[in-house]
Specification:
The protein is mainly alpha-helical and 209 residues long. It has 10 helices and no strands. Helix 3 runs antiparallel to helix 4 and helix 6 runs parallel beside helix 8. The radius of gyration is 19 Å and the shape is globular. The relative contact order is 0.06.
Length: 209
């Protein structure tokens, strides 16, 4: 994989779309292999090179900084993930606005990192506010609201609010039941099974309380 990337870099240049796509595939393959430390190193190197080439104000830099934060979480560096996510949210609010869909995604990511890093109550507080904001946009933020709802379910579970987490998950299951997928897609079955498995776990936790 790395030899292919090196070849494309020599022939096409580092920033040719084909070369960039090949580097992205390497990251995807390594992620599937569970080699998260390597993926983090590659992502941090990519970010540094993009800043050097295009400048810190390039529109794609926020996306790459967000990716680094998630990669840090995957290797267990939650302190690093929280610290970076905070600055990314601040810059996203300044550059895109607090209501922009990407800003909402980044705010949700920060809240999840906090919940996983020993501050579940703070994560729940931030996500409840964000969930209400997203709901106010109605259908325009349908998918974003669903994503935030599931992140809130996770934070509530971590905070010990399993009954509320279960109620919110049931709302998501009802929405999923009404979701239409393409005739050749198996996404619906897969997603519903995943939600039902999650529900089984939460039901068991509620009964044990």
């Amino acid at each position: 994989m790395h030899e292919d990337v090196a070849y494309l870099t020599r022939k096409l240049g580092r920033w040719h779309p084909g070369t960039v796509a090949a580097r992205t595939r390497v990251g995807s393959w390594l992620t599937l292999e569970g080699r998260h430390a390597e993926v983090l190193q590659l992502t941090e190197a990519e970010l540094a090179e993009r800043i050097a080439e295009f400048g810190a104000d390039d529109p794609d830099i926020l996306m790459w900084r967000t990716s680094v934060a998630w990669r840090r979480r995957r290797v267990g560096d939650l302190d690093g993930a929280v610290a970076l996510a905070r600055t990314v949210v601040e810059d996203s609010v300044r550059e895109l606005g607090s209501d922009h869909p990407h800003t909402h995604q980044r705010r949700a990511g920060l809240a999840r990192f906090l919940a996983e890093n020993g501050e579940p109550a703070e994560g729940v507080r931030l996500l409840r506010a964000l969930y209400a904001e997203s709901q106010a946009f109605g259908h325009d933020r349908h998918s974003g609201t669903r994503s935030i709802r599931m992140t809130l379910v996770t934070a509530l579970e971590l905070n010990g609010d399993v009954r509320e987490a279960l109620d919110l998950l049931d709302e998501e299951i009802e929405v999923e039941r009404g979701t239409l997928y393409g005739i050749d897609e198996n996404l619906g079955d897969h997603e519903m099974k995943r939600l039902e498995e999650r529900r089984t776990i939460l039901v068991a936790k509620v009964r044990s309380v």
